[in-house]
Structure formats: structure tokens, C-alpha cells
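Each record in this resource describes a single protein on a pair of labelled lines. With that in mind, the following record should read easily:

===
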Amino acid sequence: MSLLSKIRLLSSKPISRTISSRLASFSRLGKQPNKKVFEELCFCLLTANYTSAGGIKIQKEIGRGFLSLSQVQLAQKLKSLGYRFPNTRARYIYEARKHLSELKILKTNKSQIELREWLASNVLGLGYKEASHFLRNTGYFDLAIIDFHILDLVVSEYRIKKPKSLSKTKYLEIEKKLAGLAKKLNMSQGELDLYLWYLETGKVLK
């Protein structure tokens, strides 16, 4: 069965209500004060080369501490929670604080492509994938979140060679394929990502 057919089938199942609810929660989060949105930015910084479930657990544990703990305290807390890269990610989160007031950029009329470019260029440790992830989780649904789980599905569906790494050029190339799939399904790429994740993991996280 093609990927298109699998997702069409899923969209007629009860899981579609869970996905719709999750998208609505993302839209609500994007309207929250900058400090709350910053916690989601930290979650996305943590999930690079890590698990979403693990990132969710850590986000709940640290919460406002993302803004108040020193870099050393953050590293110690991350280490105590079993995080794989405590020192590096503590530095990324600490450095990201300088952009707290600038997160108001999310409430401007800039395009989602411009927002992603700004995030990837200005927030240390945030590449295209996690910038797209952060934007999706704060209510921007027109960008693809391409990790290796999603990449495996795309490679299988379109019979393309799996890249060893995702350069900006390769990322945008694969994003176009996912945009085409989303258009055929009459859904956003943010919604499509949740269906793809469900296909791969049987879960709807964030």
C-alpha cells in the first residue's frame, strides 16, 4: 500500500481526532507569552539526536528552570535526568535566552520560511529540522520536520537514495516531496508529520 493510501486510511480512523486535537494545542501554545514559548524552544533544542518522549519528560521536570538556572545548574540537572548531551545542550539553552524578547517575531507577518531561516541562523544548536519542529509546535504548519524516521518513509515511497546527512539543499528537496504529498491529502505538512510519526511509532507526541 502506498504512503498516500496509508495516510488516507488513517485519516478516517479515530486517531485523526487525536491529531486534530494536538494541532489545536500547538496553535494555542503559539499565542502564549514568550516565556512559555521559550520552554518549547528548549524542548526542541533537547530533541536533536534524542527522543521526543525523553524531551517531554525533561521539559516537564525543568519548566521555568530553562530561564532561571545557570548554565552549570542546567547541565547538572540534565545529567541527573539521564540526558545524553548535558553540557552542550545546557550551553545552547543558556545562549538561547538572549533571544527571548525576539520571539515576538513569531507574531509578525513574516512567512514561515523566513521565520525558519531566522531561527536556524540565530539560535545556536537549532538547525532546519528543529527550527521546523519548533514552528510546528507553536502553530505554524507549512514546513516539514525531517528526521531519519520520516526520511526512511520518504526513501521507501519515492525510491530515492538515502542521504548520509541532510544538507540545506537536500532538506529542501525532500521537503518539496512531502509538500506534494500533503497537497494530495489536502492537509498541512504539520498534520502530515503527525500521521507519518504515527505510522512509524504508533504514537502521537509532539
